[in-house]
UniProtKB/TrEMBL annotation:
One of its GO terms (molecular function) is myosin II binding. One of its GO terms (cellular component) is plasma membrane. SUPFAM superfamilies: Calcium-dependent phosphotriesterase (SSF63829), WD40 repeat-like (SSF50978). Pfam families: Lgl_C. Residues 1-22, 963-984 are annotated as: Disordered. Keywords: Exocytosis. One of its GO terms (biological process) is exocytosis. Residues 693-828 form the Lethal giant larvae (Lgl)-like C-terminal domain. This is Lethal giant larvae (Lgl)-like C-terminal domain-containing protein. The lineage of its organism: Eukaryota, Viridiplantae, Streptophyta, Embryophyta, Tracheophyta. The keyword Repeat does not apply. Belongs to the WD repeat L(2)GL family. Residues 1-11 have a biased composition (Basic and acidic residues).
Length: 1056
């Protein structure tokens, strides 16, 4: 026995897999498709030019939805949620600020993460200056930084230009949490000239970018004379940038007047009105404000409150102060975010619509027709007001009728190419889109041709809650509906009700499709020979009526059994069907006659449900016998005589500690390995050549000998137990060199193991995947189906579909590249073709100017930018490249140093102390000061602080140089004694061009002399640095005193 075990181990590889069978390089588990809304979604953003909707999740994923069914999934390295998400519109760049204050730059054309910028501080607001490569970052300290996105490399670079809190606000406040910047709004018609800053304290500052000073200061708790409250969000509510709406944490919504250029009087910055929407009575913080500009008096603002199901829409016009017209949309759950999907004004179609998308706390997306919202608000005061806008839940097309309860995924390697890639591309354009804005449905659009289950590459069969069977062509990475089956001839509708389907089986040899439901009803669909032909060779997308199924379905037979149907399996050698129920009943059915041959009830102390049935032929006491192997929910395994239903063995095979069983499969030793079993020279474990039974539970895997199972004798060939998360799905697949086992765990971990050794080959994880066991007498929310070659189809409720593949270099779908290309370069408009005048945030806003939002001065001109975009970018480049507040540049330098660790420039020049000039040169300094942008008052004279910071860096590098030179001097002295009398060696060195020992010593002395000079320079630098630091401190104190004096004078003048 010992020798036999030794030989068995010698035949195995060090990694645990045998010399034959599946190997690690034979598998490559990966996600090949994500379709739908990802779980954990909590942020929206929309690019109106490219028509791309981005949805970010709490675990670092970003889903992109484009035109013509295009979808793509981006997965960040950091599994952290998004704080802010913004497009650089029409440029194929998406910026994501995660919870770790890292700014991710995504290239949408390549669908790759180009750069990660680690911001030095807590980011509290983020805004892209559209049509330029710049964006603003506000932090918890009240400072605003500027980042530039390089066009070629997509690198995020922090500019020298900053807006410190001391400069924008005037003086620090007592409570530190009130200093944070909650909103940054470039002023419409002057985006490149002025930005509006809203602080948590309620303070509002209009900042002039070029002059680097505040034009307006207003707001704050003192201004509104109310209890202390904090601002939470803001948005413009006027196309000229003269009105801004601010939401607060106590439920207030205030409209403030903001001056245009040249208007700085106190009257122009007053609070205009307050929107009383009921949030304040419940102290509900305002979390989001969106404004939509429309022609006439239909402009409106959308409001979301924290943890509130109520989304309110208010008309904004000259009557808002006296009579407020509003609409309350009662969403099915608390709202997390919202986004406006604006149709292109140039797109001529009667189906053109604008949509309001609302994201719920659960991650579900709801859509409202924005035209109906506008119509209701405008006509609500009429005699016949229109109906309220209806809520539409965005969900998978599989769930249009009802949720999926069971699925079957079929892949055909030898399928016929009935449709070309062009045909499928056209179907993608004509199919009903996942999101309403993705494609405009056309009349008389082309539909899908379904030649047969074995004639297309991928077929997905789904069973639903209402008993419907749906068939989908999934050759492409989106489902094409081709067939709906629902028996209408059953007279026992009262007993059947809307029973959910719980089991599906398809046999291609006999063209049999069988289904079972919760009420024990089994339906046998006999299909016609393939290929299927119709009058026009196409089946409508809207589904098939009973008459429309006659070209596919030949006959339908019903059989009523006891209990909910768990599994259905057909015998390969006979026309029999084995059916197992959740009550422990095993039935054998004659397919032709639709009669029950026998029913056996198997009792169990723990759980009597049958999870799997397998037909097999086995030698019993020298006779070949047809057996039916049965696996139960309590992990018990036994065999029945398939002809009589009697148990062959005396005992059931079960583990000592049973767990809930999920999967059972008979492993045929003749087919386990892809190689010939009769090869000589290889020592094999005899047990692996015999048929065995694989059973997988939530916590363990066992492989038994089939012959021993039939006899009722427990013989474990291999086993593996798991102590971490539970297994939720198990399936086998056939690779090029053997059979493998795919395990999916409840936390998203996927393991690929070899058979029969159960050694781990590969392990990966599916981000965002979680599985919860269903409650008693309820169906699971997630269904997982597998194909023979390792593809897994996971459907999470009615929101998302995930397809993973195991075999490398396997093309699961066609048109993957084209249907994942959400960014269209052909549709991109270059910078020269974009105008920056007006509040052009979407194509819809180009319709006209907003002339009657509020009462305004009659002869008022709007300051509109007339420069070309190229000139604007060049001017901003000059402004942002210079330090407007050098005393505040410590944060910029520290941020650059932290990001230098991530990316080091190989061409960076080394620092040399010989390049330092310690003497003052006043004229060049004055010239440099003139080239910088205009700074704020007396603070412009502290530019020496930046030089002092550089000297500190030089000092650190000089210390390293000192240490190196000291070591070289010591080494030279030691070598001096060893090289006495070594003249011949020096001559040889000289002959071949090498330095002699004397020259080495001379070089050391030269280095030492140079070091002494550097140390003298360093001392002079230190003295100069100390002098400039003292000067900087005196300047800073003087500046603070000056600012305090100005503030005091302003308050005195306002009181007078």
């Amino acid at each position: 026995m010992f020798v036999k075990k030794l030989v068995e181990k010698a035949a195995k590889k060090p990694g645990g897999s045998s010399t034959e069978g599946l190997r690690a390089n034979d598998v490559e588990p990966r996600v090949v498709l994500h379709y739908g809304i990802p779980s954990g979604a909590h942020l929206f953003v929309y690019d109106p030019f490219q028509k791309i909707l981005a949805v970010s999740t709490k675990d670092g994923r970003i889903k992109l939805f484009g035109k013509d069914q295009a979808q793509a999934l981006l997965v960040s390295e950091e599994a952290s949620g998004s704080k802010f998400l913004e497009f650089v519109q029409n440029q194929g760049i998406l910026l994501n600020v995660n919870a770790k204050n890292q700014i991710e730059v995504w290239n949408l054309d390549k669908k790759l993460l180009s750069h990660v910028h680690a911001f030095n501080g807590e980011i509290t607001s983020f805004r892209v200056m559209q049509h330029t490569p710049y964006c603003y970052v506000g932090d918890s300290s009240g400072n605003v930084s500027v980042l530039k996105i390089e066009q070629d490399s997509n690198q995020a670079i922090q500019m020298d230009y900053t807006i410190p809190y001391l400069a924008s606000n005037g003086s620090p406040v007592e409570a530190s949490d009130d200093t944070s910047v909650v909103s940054i709004l470039p002023q419409p018609t002057a985006e490149s000239k002025r930005i509006l800053l809203v602080f948590s304290s309620g303070f509002i500052t209009l900042w002039d970018i070029k002059e680097s000073k505040p034009v307006l200061k207003t707001g704050g708790n003192v201004m509104v004379k109310q209890d202390s409250k904090k601002a939470t969000c803001a948005c413009w509510v006027c196309p000229s940038g003269s009105r801004v709406s601010v939401g607060y944490n106590n439920g207030d919504i205030l409209i403030w007047s903001i001056p245009s250029k040249g208007e700085c009087s106190p009257e122009s910055s007053a609070m205009v009105c307050k929107l009383n929407l009921g949030y304040k009575s419940e102290k509900t913080p305002i979390t989001s404000l969106k404004w939509v500009h429309a022609e006439g008096k239909a402009s409106r603002v959308y409001v979301i409150g924290s943890s509130s199901n109520l989304l309110q829409v208010v008309l904004l016009n000259e009557q808002t102060e006296t009579r407020m017209i509003k609409l309350g949309l009662h969403v099915s759950e608390p709202c997390a975010d919202m986004e406006m999907i604006i149709a292109d004004a140039n797109e001529q179609s009667k189906h053109k619509q604008d949509y309001l998308f609302v994201l719920g706390k659960s991650g579900r997306v709801y859509a409202y027709d924005d035209y109906m919202i506008e119509k209701y608000l405008v006509q609500s005061q009429s005699k016949s007001p229109p109906s309220l806008p209806k809520e539409t839940v965005i969900k998978l097309p599989f769930s249009d009728s009802s949720s999926i309860t069971v699925g079957k995924f079929l892949t055909n390697p030898s399928h016929l190419l009935n449709l070309s890639d062009d045909d499928y591309a056209q179907l993608a354009k004509d199919a009903v889109p996942f999101l309403p804005f993705q494609t405009v449905p056309k009349e008389n659009s082309r539909s899908a041709h379904f030649p047969g289950f074995t004639k297309v590459k991928n077929v997905y069969i789904t069973g639903h809650c209402d008993g419907t069977i749906s068939v989908w062509d999934m050759t492409c990475p989106f489902p094409i509906p081709v067939l709906f089956l629902k028996d209408q001839t059953d007279q026992d509708t009262s007993s059947r009700g809307n029973a959910a389907l719980t089991a599906l089986h398809y046999d291609s040899n006999t063209r049999l499709l069988a289904s079972g439901d919760q009420n024990g009803m089994v339906r046998l669909y006999r299909l016609k020979p393939e290929p299927y032909l119709t009058e026009n060779s196409f089946i409508p997308f809207q589904g098939s009526s009973k008459k429309g199924n006659n070209h596919i379905v030949q006959s339908v037979k019903n059989i009523k059994l006891t209990g909910s149907i768990n599994c259905i399996q057909k015998s390969h050698n006979s026309k029999h069907l084995a059916i197992g129920s959740d009550q422990g009943h095993v039935s054998l059915v004659d397919i032709e006659e639709a009669t029950v041959l026998y029913t056996k009830h198997i009792a169990s102390d723990i759980c009597s449900g049958i999870i799997s049935l397998q037909f097999e032929s086995c030698s019993v006491q020298g006779f070949e016998k047809n057996v039916l192997v049965v696996a139960m929910r309590d992990s018990s395994v036994f065999a029945l005589d398939s002809d009589t239903g009697n148990m062959i063995g005396t005992n059931m095979i079960k583990p000592k500690k049973p767990f809930k069983a999920l999967f059972m499969q008979i492993l045929d030793g003749k087919h386990e390995n892809g190689n010939d079993v009769s090869r000589e020279g290889i020592v094999e474990d005899i047990s692996t050549r015999q048929p065995s039974v694989l059973i997988c539970s939530e916590k363990a895997i066992y492989i038994y000998s089939l012959a021993q199972v039939v006899q009722g004798v427990k013989k474990v060939l291999h086993k593996k137990k798991f102590s971490s998360s539970s297994i939720c799905s198990a399936s086998t697949f056939h690779g090029a060199s053997g059979v493998g086992l795919t395990l999916v765990f409840s936390d998203g971990t996927v393991e690929i193991r070899s058979l029969p050794e159960l050694s781990l080959l590969k392990q990966t994880s599916i981000r965002g995947f979680t599985y919860s066991s269903p409650k008693p007498n309820s169906l699971p929310e997630m269904t997982i189906s597998s194909s023979w070659d390792g593809d897994l189809v996971m459907v999470n409720g009615d929101e998302e579909l995930i397809v993973s593949s195991v075999l490398p270099q396997k093309d699961t779908f066609r048109l993957v590249e084209s249907l994942s290309r959400v960014y269209k370069k052909d549709n991109a408009v270059c910078y020269e073709g974009i105008t920056t005048s007006g509040a052009v945030t979407s194509p819809k806003e180009k319709k006209g100017m907003f002339g009657s939002v509020f009462k305004s001065k009659p002869k008022r001109t709007v300051d509109t930018e007339t420069e070309s975009p190229k000139e604007i970018v060049e001017e901003l480049s000059k402004i942002f490249s210079s330090a407007n507040f050098p005393w505040n540049n410590n944060n910029v330098e520290s941020s650059r140093e932290s990001n230098a660790v991530m990316k080091v420039d190989e061409n960076e020049e080394e620092l040399d102390i010989d390049d330092i000039d310690i003497e003052d040169h006043h004229q060049p300094h004055q010239q440099q000061q003139q080239e910088q942008p205009k700074e704020q008052g007396i603070l412009s004279g502290i530019s020496k602080q930046k030089l002092a910071n550089k000297f500190t860096v030089f000092k650190g590098k000089l210390k390293q140089m000192t240490a190196k030179n000291d070591k070289s001097v010591v080494a030279t002295n030691e070598e001096k004694h060893e090289e006495k009398g070594g003249n011949s060696v020096d001559q040889i060195k000289k002959k071949y061009g090498f330095a002699s020992s004397d020259q080495d010593m001379g070089a050391a002395k030269l280095a030492q002399s140079k070091l002494q000079d550097n140390l003298k320079k360093l001392q002079a630098i230190s003295l100069k640095t100390t002098e400039m630091e003292d000067t900087a401190k005196s300047f800073s104190s003087t500046a603070k005193e000056l600012l305090s004096a100005v503030e005091f004078n302003n308050r005195q003048s306002s009181k007078s």
